[in-house]
């Protein structure tokens, strides 16, 4: 007959609860899992399933009561680590949204906004379109599986401990925030350059023929050129986005180590 005392039961609960907290923190913020359209039951079921896989391989923390101050500190520590890893994925989609905002404003579609359930704010139509394309590539390239693999490997790179040091490099995480601007400029630069040339041509045309109504012909031309350029660059978005995805996976895997002189490489 199998008998389990209270101490063993507490140890089993703690061994499952701490990895579950880190995994749920990641799922809660990382797109597309953290989208409000994904049911909460699905998120919790996915977190529980992954925790059941990870928990047996995690070394137990002896003499740590989950309801003690130390246990609660470990719980909050795992939540912060999971949110930090989810933030790395969120930055990618924030950069894509920034690229769409820049493109939309340059085209003259700044007024075409929609409600974004992910950020609970307004975003342009071009941003929504690029985010959908990025999400489809994210899933079709199995990047979500690579993210889960990096999350599971993080329990080896950043083990669960009672130390006050959370185990991951805050500096590396802060530096990763600049990727929002790098991704936004990388994806929007071709269209911004094309629209800049278009506006220069319209300015020259206006000076040559002042009787032309620049406001009457300028906006349709810039919108047409913007959509034409967007159609032309769509087939070439896969390679830069694939590099960005790989860069984010590498960042999650290396989050437990301090950055060197220049950890960021061009995506």
TrEMBL record:
Keywords: Bacterial flagellum, Cell membrane, Cell projection, Cilium, Flagellum, Membrane, Transmembrane, Transmembrane helix. InterPro entries: FliR, T3SS_IM_R. The keyword Cell membrane applies. The chain crosses the membrane at residues 9-30, 42-61, 73-93, 99-117, 129-148, 180-202, 214-238. It comes from the Bacteria. It is found in: Cell membrane; Bacterial flagellum basal body. It is a multi-pass membrane protein. NCBIfam families: fliR (TIGR01400). Role in flagellar biosynthesis. Belongs to the FliR/MopE/SpaR family. This is Flagellar biosynthetic protein FliR. It comes from Undibacterium amnicola. The lineage of its organism: Bacteria, Pseudomonadati, Pseudomonadota, Betaproteobacteria, Burkholderiales. The gene is fliR.
